[in-house]
Amino acid sequence: MDATDYLARIGAAADDPLDTLIERHMIAVPFENLSVHLPEPIELDDDALLEKIVERHRGGFCFELNGAFAWLLRELGYDVTLCSARVARNGGDDGYGPPGDHMALVVDVRGARLLVDVGFGRFAARAVDLERRDGQPDRTGTYAVRDAPDGELDVVCDDTVVYRLDPRARLLTDFLPLSWWHSTSPESPFALGLTCSRLTRAGRVTLAGDRHIVTGDDGSREERTVPEDEQLEIYRDVFGIVLDAVPTVG
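Request: output the structure for the sequence above.
Response:
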Protein backbone atom coordinates (compact mmCIF):
# COMPACT_ATOMS: atom_id res chain seq x y z
CA MET A 1 0.00 0.00 0.00
CA ASP A 2 1.16 3.53 -0.65
CA ALA A 3 -0.02 6.89 0.61
CA THR A 4 -2.38 7.32 -2.36
CA ASP A 5 -4.83 4.75 -0.99
CA TYR A 6 -4.77 6.27 2.47
CA LEU A 7 -5.27 9.79 1.11
CA ALA A 8 -8.25 8.58 -0.90
CA ARG A 9 -9.69 7.05 2.27
CA ILE A 10 -9.70 10.44 4.00
CA GLY A 11 -10.45 12.57 0.95
CA ALA A 12 -7.17 14.45 1.03
CA ALA A 13 -4.23 15.25 -1.24
CA ALA A 14 -0.51 14.81 -0.61
CA ASP A 15 0.13 18.55 -0.72
CA ASP A 16 -2.66 19.45 1.72
CA PRO A 17 -1.48 21.32 4.85
CA LEU A 18 -1.09 19.32 8.04
CA ASP A 19 -4.20 20.85 9.61
CA THR A 20 -6.26 19.79 6.59
CA LEU A 21 -4.97 16.23 6.84
CA ILE A 22 -5.86 16.13 10.54
CA GLU A 23 -9.42 17.39 10.11
CA ARG A 24 -10.17 15.19 7.11
CA HIS A 25 -8.86 12.14 8.95
CA MET A 26 -11.12 12.90 11.91
CA ILE A 27 -14.11 13.35 9.60
CA ALA A 28 -13.49 10.18 7.59
CA VAL A 29 -12.13 7.69 10.13
CA PRO A 30 -14.22 7.04 13.26
CA PHE A 31 -13.00 6.63 16.79
CA GLU A 32 -14.54 3.26 17.68
CA ASN A 33 -14.09 0.25 19.94
CA LEU A 34 -16.11 -2.33 18.01
CA SER A 35 -13.16 -4.74 17.81
CA VAL A 36 -13.29 -5.14 21.59
CA HIS A 37 -16.82 -6.53 21.38
CA LEU A 38 -16.95 -8.36 18.07
CA PRO A 39 -14.42 -9.67 19.25
CA GLU A 40 -11.47 -9.43 16.88
CA PRO A 41 -7.74 -8.99 17.52
CA ILE A 42 -6.20 -5.54 17.73
CA GLU A 43 -2.76 -5.66 16.16
CA LEU A 44 -0.27 -2.82 16.39
CA ASP A 45 1.82 -3.08 13.25
CA ASP A 46 1.66 -1.00 10.11
CA ASP A 47 0.26 -3.71 7.84
CA ALA A 48 -2.57 -4.61 10.21
CA LEU A 49 -3.48 -0.99 10.88
CA LEU A 50 -3.58 -0.08 7.19
CA GLU A 51 -5.60 -3.18 6.34
CA LYS A 52 -8.18 -2.32 8.98
CA ILE A 53 -8.45 1.43 8.49
CA VAL A 54 -7.78 1.85 4.77
CA GLU A 55 -8.86 -1.41 3.15
CA ARG A 56 -11.75 -2.34 5.47
CA HIS A 57 -12.85 1.27 6.11
CA ARG A 58 -12.91 0.77 9.85
CA GLY A 59 -11.73 3.01 12.65
CA GLY A 60 -10.18 2.18 16.01
CA PHE A 61 -8.93 3.65 19.27
CA CYS A 62 -5.88 5.81 19.89
CA PHE A 63 -3.12 3.27 19.30
CA GLU A 64 -4.64 2.29 15.97
CA LEU A 65 -5.70 5.71 14.67
CA ASN A 66 -2.58 7.61 15.65
CA GLY A 67 -0.40 4.65 14.69
CA ALA A 68 -1.84 4.58 11.19
CA PHE A 69 -1.81 8.36 10.81
CA ALA A 70 1.86 8.42 11.84
CA TRP A 71 2.57 6.02 8.95
CA LEU A 72 0.78 8.32 6.50
CA LEU A 73 2.55 11.44 7.73
CA ARG A 74 5.93 9.76 7.44
CA GLU A 75 5.11 8.64 3.91
CA LEU A 76 4.39 12.30 3.14
CA GLY A 77 7.77 13.36 4.52
CA TYR A 78 6.87 14.52 8.03
CA ASP A 79 9.10 13.95 11.05
CA VAL A 80 6.79 12.11 13.49
CA THR A 81 7.37 10.98 17.07
CA LEU A 82 5.06 8.57 18.90
CA CYS A 83 4.50 9.78 22.46
CA SER A 84 2.98 8.32 25.59
CA ALA A 85 0.27 10.15 27.51
CA ARG A 86 -1.66 9.61 30.71
CA VAL A 87 -5.35 10.47 30.53
CA ALA A 88 -6.47 12.91 33.23
CA ARG A 89 -9.17 11.72 35.60
CA ASN A 90 -11.59 14.52 36.43
CA GLY A 91 -9.24 17.08 34.93
CA GLY A 92 -6.33 15.65 36.90
CA ASP A 93 -7.99 16.15 40.30
CA ASP A 94 -8.29 12.36 40.64
CA GLY A 95 -4.88 11.63 39.15
CA TYR A 96 -3.89 10.20 35.79
CA GLY A 97 -3.90 6.89 34.00
CA PRO A 98 -0.73 4.81 33.69
CA PRO A 99 2.06 5.64 31.22
CA GLY A 100 1.01 4.48 27.76
CA ASP A 101 -2.68 4.89 28.62
CA HIS A 102 -2.93 7.00 25.47
CA MET A 103 -0.76 7.54 22.42
CA ALA A 104 -0.37 10.90 20.67
CA LEU A 105 1.92 12.24 17.96
CA VAL A 106 4.44 15.07 17.97
CA VAL A 107 5.21 16.34 14.48
CA ASP A 108 8.22 18.54 13.79
CA VAL A 109 7.43 21.17 11.16
CA ARG A 110 10.29 23.55 10.41
CA GLY A 111 11.52 23.28 13.99
CA ALA A 112 8.10 23.70 15.63
CA ARG A 113 6.85 20.80 17.76
CA LEU A 114 3.18 20.24 17.02
CA LEU A 115 0.84 17.93 18.93
CA VAL A 116 -1.32 15.91 16.56
CA ASP A 117 -4.01 13.57 17.89
CA VAL A 118 -6.64 11.94 15.67
CA GLY A 119 -7.25 9.17 18.21
CA PHE A 120 -8.84 10.76 21.27
CA GLY A 121 -12.40 11.16 20.06
CA ARG A 122 -13.32 14.78 20.69
CA PHE A 123 -10.05 16.67 20.36
CA ALA A 124 -8.43 19.50 18.44
CA ALA A 125 -9.07 19.30 14.70
CA ARG A 126 -5.76 21.01 14.02
CA ALA A 127 -2.25 20.79 15.42
CA VAL A 128 -1.49 22.27 18.85
CA ASP A 129 1.84 24.10 19.17
CA LEU A 130 3.67 22.61 22.16
CA GLU A 131 5.97 25.63 22.48
CA ARG A 132 3.17 28.12 23.07
CA ARG A 133 1.66 28.77 26.50
CA ASP A 134 -1.28 30.89 25.42
CA GLY A 135 -4.72 29.69 24.34
CA GLN A 136 -4.98 28.15 20.88
CA PRO A 137 -8.56 28.37 19.56
CA ASP A 138 -9.94 25.40 17.64
CA ARG A 139 -13.43 24.55 16.41
CA THR A 140 -13.68 22.01 19.27
CA GLY A 141 -12.51 24.35 22.05
CA THR A 142 -9.54 26.41 23.18
CA TYR A 143 -6.39 24.37 23.81
CA ALA A 144 -3.36 25.24 25.90
CA VAL A 145 -0.12 23.60 26.98
CA ARG A 146 1.21 23.82 30.53
CA ASP A 147 4.52 22.66 31.93
CA ALA A 148 4.23 19.66 34.25
CA PRO A 149 6.75 17.86 36.49
CA ASP A 150 9.61 15.78 35.06
CA GLY A 151 9.53 17.45 31.66
CA GLU A 152 5.98 16.36 30.87
CA LEU A 153 3.30 18.66 29.46
CA ASP A 154 -0.34 19.05 30.43
CA VAL A 155 -2.65 19.39 27.43
CA VAL A 156 -5.67 21.49 28.35
CA CYS A 157 -9.01 22.09 26.63
CA ASP A 158 -11.22 24.91 27.87
CA ASP A 159 -9.24 25.10 31.13
CA THR A 160 -9.59 21.37 31.86
CA VAL A 161 -6.58 19.05 31.64
CA VAL A 162 -7.18 16.34 29.05
CA TYR A 163 -3.97 14.37 29.42
CA ARG A 164 -0.35 14.60 30.56
CA LEU A 165 2.06 14.11 27.66
CA ASP A 166 5.54 12.63 27.87
CA PRO A 167 7.28 14.09 24.78
CA ARG A 168 9.99 11.40 24.66
CA ALA A 169 9.94 9.11 21.63
CA ARG A 170 8.28 5.71 21.85
CA LEU A 171 7.90 2.74 19.50
CA LEU A 172 4.51 1.45 18.40
CA THR A 173 5.26 -1.86 20.14
CA ASP A 174 5.71 0.01 23.44
CA PHE A 175 1.94 0.44 23.53
CA LEU A 176 1.10 -3.25 23.21
CA PRO A 177 0.57 -3.84 26.97
CA LEU A 178 -1.93 -1.00 27.38
CA SER A 179 -3.62 -1.83 24.07
CA TRP A 180 -4.08 -5.40 25.32
CA TRP A 181 -5.39 -4.17 28.67
CA HIS A 182 -7.85 -1.74 27.10
CA SER A 183 -9.15 -4.43 24.74
CA THR A 184 -9.44 -7.28 27.28
CA SER A 185 -9.85 -6.00 30.84
CA PRO A 186 -13.39 -5.69 32.25
CA GLU A 187 -12.09 -2.59 34.05
CA SER A 188 -11.25 -0.83 30.79
CA PRO A 189 -13.74 1.87 29.77
CA PHE A 190 -13.73 0.33 26.29
CA ALA A 191 -15.18 -2.91 27.74
CA LEU A 192 -18.18 -1.16 29.28
CA GLY A 193 -20.01 -0.24 26.09
CA LEU A 194 -19.96 0.40 22.37
CA THR A 195 -18.86 3.71 20.95
CA CYS A 196 -18.40 4.95 17.40
CA SER A 197 -17.84 8.66 16.81
CA ARG A 198 -16.45 11.00 14.19
CA LEU A 199 -16.11 14.66 13.46
CA THR A 200 -18.51 16.24 10.95
CA ARG A 201 -18.33 19.49 9.03
CA ALA A 202 -20.50 21.15 11.68
CA GLY A 203 -19.89 19.13 14.84
CA ARG A 204 -19.78 15.45 15.80
CA VAL A 205 -21.93 12.36 15.37
CA THR A 206 -21.79 9.46 17.84
CA LEU A 207 -23.45 6.11 18.26
CA ALA A 208 -22.96 5.06 21.89
CA GLY A 209 -24.70 1.73 22.25
CA ASP A 210 -28.29 2.48 21.26
CA ARG A 211 -27.94 6.26 21.67
CA HIS A 212 -27.53 8.31 18.51
CA ILE A 213 -26.04 11.70 19.44
CA VAL A 214 -25.48 14.66 17.12
CA THR A 215 -23.70 17.69 18.53
CA GLY A 216 -22.87 20.96 16.81
CA ASP A 217 -19.93 23.31 17.04
CA ASP A 218 -22.55 25.87 18.08
CA GLY A 219 -23.34 23.88 21.24
CA SER A 220 -26.49 22.21 19.94
CA ARG A 221 -27.23 18.59 20.87
CA GLU A 222 -29.76 16.02 19.71
CA GLU A 223 -30.02 12.57 21.23
CA ARG A 224 -32.37 9.66 20.60
CA THR A 225 -32.57 5.93 21.24
CA VAL A 226 -32.50 3.73 18.15
CA PRO A 227 -33.33 0.00 17.71
CA GLU A 228 -30.74 -2.54 16.54
CA ASP A 229 -31.78 -2.50 12.88
CA GLU A 230 -31.36 1.28 12.76
CA GLN A 231 -28.04 1.00 14.59
CA LEU A 232 -26.76 -1.19 11.76
CA GLU A 233 -27.96 1.41 9.25
CA ILE A 234 -26.15 4.18 11.13
CA TYR A 235 -22.94 2.15 11.29
CA ARG A 236 -23.19 1.64 7.53
CA ASP A 237 -24.49 4.98 6.29
CA VAL A 238 -22.86 7.38 8.78
CA PHE A 239 -19.61 5.60 9.61
CA GLY A 240 -19.09 3.37 6.56
CA ILE A 241 -18.92 0.23 8.74
CA VAL A 242 -20.87 -2.77 7.48
CA LEU A 243 -21.86 -5.25 10.21
CA ASP A 244 -24.02 -8.36 10.13
CA ALA A 245 -25.17 -7.76 13.71
CA VAL A 246 -24.63 -5.23 16.47
CA PRO A 247 -21.67 -6.34 18.63
CA THR A 248 -22.53 -7.76 22.04
CA VAL A 249 -21.18 -6.07 25.16
CA GLY A 250 -19.96 -8.36 27.92
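The first strand starts at residue 31 and ends at 32.
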